[in-house]
Predict the structure.
Amino acid sequence: MSLIEAYENSLKEHLKEFNIKTYLGEFNDKDKIEALFNKDECLVFFDFINESFLNVSQREITYKIYVCSKTSNKQRAKREECKYKALDKLSEIERALIDTYFINGFKVDLLSLAKEYDNATDLGFIVLYSRTFKTILQENNHTGLVDEL
């Protein structure tokens, strides 16, 4: 198992309460985003962005966490509620990440927050935010999650 695969498995396990999935192009077709929802709940994905070698045994990896929220109500107050629901969910995920060390990794550094998409449609309102984060992976014989500090 590759170092990145081991890290991603640990990340999914650690964030399983958020029903997080690996991002596999689900937002590429903006017209089909609404079809991803079963109801007005947040969708949560993570995506590998890049890797840089720091030295022979360490790599810096960058990821994005995507949180997408939807409401079928087009009223302004409901759209604002939808926006804050996504940001609140992202904050919960961030709290779960910032004090966690992985055996093959270091502490997570949270980077930029961005709005990737928002749209009011005939069916309601959708908003998509992403949080970029990075960590360092250390080559070793262990994989998995270390207890939180």
